[in-house]
Design brief:
single chain, alpha/beta, 5-stranded mixed beta sheet, 35% helix, elongated
């Protein structure tokens, strides 16, 4: 260390730009602390290198921890509850993991496994690790590694069949073409991958710079490097105008001047906060046919949003193409099988195909299934919290023979209009019945002639008949009370009076009572009444 300090002091080194990689930065940062010389890096993004712990280290770039909220917002958007982390065993890879793990815990997302890929891994060793991941239930992977290593990872993942439907891949900032351009072959193997990248605002200054430089696509590290040199030049002019006595005071003053310098550079607003650049906005891209397509943006205030055709902002992403060239969102969890699918037996019916209909495609050699039983099976699959890879196996024969194939492990399950019987339940397990068999029995009706006498009672219930009878008895009792003192017919022995009450009640049902008129009287007309009087 002392041997390296002497040339710095002798040559009056005021600042060091670099190093480029996080692995190299730790030693150089320690050297800068000893010599009181600012170490300014535009490419060391590992959060393990902290400007708060080493004041003379200035990160003229965004820390990898800035993207954590954008990534967790994507995971929350699709509702995944498990995610596997794949990262390289370097300072760059290891420094990011504690931050993303804590952020995932805050949104209750579990990390069941961490896959560590060493930079020295061969294709065979990477493929072996990928096959281990295929045997697990989780199907959502977050990749954090450099472009060289990730190109090997995705090419082997495609070879292993892990870039097919049901899988979801998310990459961190370091794998975007804006940060570290990858070859076209590598991008084609990443079809359907989601990723985040810092927002690069377009400006006339950047367009003019590209014309002068006659360069094609510049990555963000190139722009940060240019803005870093400009910032150091501006800070040096301000610092060396002052009369500083010692080199230590000069180093501290120069460091503080660098932190206070603000400019609008090629990468946008170049503002150092707590010794590093802020990550305010990220773009979300989808790799489609070897190109990165912007499908949305993320900010801490708005969350995930995108522009519509009417130039309006809308929450969520535009659309997403997943591995396997499908728009069906991966469920993120699958029944752990490797290289095989669940075998579903279906009966070939030669009549009444409403429940199960099997059609053979002579060109592709595959079978097409439809019918009510198949629709119920597919509806159940949609309700499962995980994906279930399966294939249908047609069988032309007896239902009992088809079910015995489950017992012989030639197939895994049967879907069809299978009747649940006691004998079949001895060697297979049935689900709850989702449809009645519809079996019915027709029997002759035996007429009871004795009961026909009381047929007139059936229109009304017994309660209603009882209330009606009590009402008539009550009417007879009221009439008896009113007529007992003035009408001699309502007098006599007790049994006669009780009989009269019941008789009067019965007579009101059968007869229509009316007033008997005296001869010579007519009250039907007013004129007749006048004549009589």
């Amino acid at each position: 260390m002392m041997l390296l300090l002497r040339p710095l002091q002798k040559d009056k080194v005021r600042a060091i730009i670099g190093p480029q990689r996080s692995e190299e930065a730790r030693f150089i940062i320690e050297l800068g602390e000893k010599a009181q010389v600012p170490i300014v890096s535009f490419s060391s993004t590992s959060p393990s290198l902290s400007p708060s712990k080493t004041p003379f280290f200035i990160r003229a770039a965004q820390s990898d921890s800035c993207q954590v909220k954008a990534i967790t917002a994507i995971i929350e958007l699709f509702g995944w509850r498990e995610i596997v982390l794949i990262y390289e065993d370097t300072t760059y890879g290891n420094g990011f993991i504690p931050y993303i793990t804590d952020a995932l815990q805050e949104i209750y997302v579990r990390v069941p496994y961490r896959s560590v890929i060493y930079p020295s891994f061969s294709d065979y060793e990477i493929l072996k690790e990928l096959l281990r991941l295929m045997g697990m239930q989780s199907r959502v992977f977050l990749v954090h590694m450099t472009a060289n290593l990730s190109s090997k990872l995705f090419s082997n993942a495609k070879m292993a069949g892990m870039m097919s439907e049901g899988y979801a891949w998310i990459t961190t900032v370091g794998l975007s073409t804006l940060m570290d351009p990858m070859g076209s072959n590598s991008l084609h193997s990443m079809h359907g991958v989601l990723g985040v990248t810092p927002k690069l605002p377009s400006s006339k200054q950047l367009d003019d710079f590209k014309k002068i430089l006659k360069a094609g696509e510049l990555n963000l590290f190139d722009l940060w490097a240019y803005d870093t040199v400009c910032t150091l030049a501006m800070a040096a002019e301000r610092t060396f105008e002052n009369d500083v006595k010692t080199s230590a005071d000069l180093g501290s003053l120069f460091r503080q001047t660098i932190l206070n310098t603000k400019l609008k550079g090629l990468s946008g607003e170049f503002n150092l906060v707590r010794g590093e650049l802020e990550g305010l906005e990220f773009e979300i891209y989808n790799v489609i046919d070897g190109k990165e397509a912007n499908i949305g943006s993320w900010t801490e205030k708005k969350g995930i949003w995108h522009w519509t055709k009417e130039n309006k902002t809308m929450q969520g992403l535009k659309w997403t193409i997943w591995p396997g060239d499908t728009q069906n969102k991966p469920k993120g969890w699958v029944y752990p099988i490797i290289g095989t699918k669940m075998r579903i037996g279906v009966p070939i019916k030669h009549g009444f195909t409403e429940f199960v209909k099997v059609e053979n495609n002579s060109q592709t050699g595959k079978i097409h299934t439809s019918g009510f039983s198949i629709d119920v099976f597919r509806a159940v699959l949609k309700k499962l919290p995980f994906a279930l890879p399966h294939e249908f196996k047609a069988y032309d024969g007896l239902y009992d023979d088809l079910l015995k194939k489950v017992q012989l492990q030639e197939i895994d399950a049967v879907v069809g209009d299978t009747t649940i019987t006691a004998d079949r339940s001895l060697f297979v397990d049935f689900t709850f019945p989702y449809c009645e068999s519809g079996v019915s029995m027709l029997v002759s009706l035996k007429h009871d002639k004795k009961s026909n006498i009381w047929l007139f009672l059936k229109p009304l219930s017994w309660d209603l008949w009882l209330i009606t009878g009590l009402a008539f008895i009550f009417t007879g009792l009221v009439v008896w009370i009113l007529e007992h003192h003035i009408n001699t017919e309502f007098r006599g022995p007790p049994h006669q009076q009780i009989g009269l009450i019941f008789w009067f009640s019965f007579s009101t049902i059968v007869f229509a009572h009316k007033l008997h008129r005296q001869p010579g009287f007519n009250v039907d007309s007013t004129e007749d009444a006048t004549n009589v009087s």
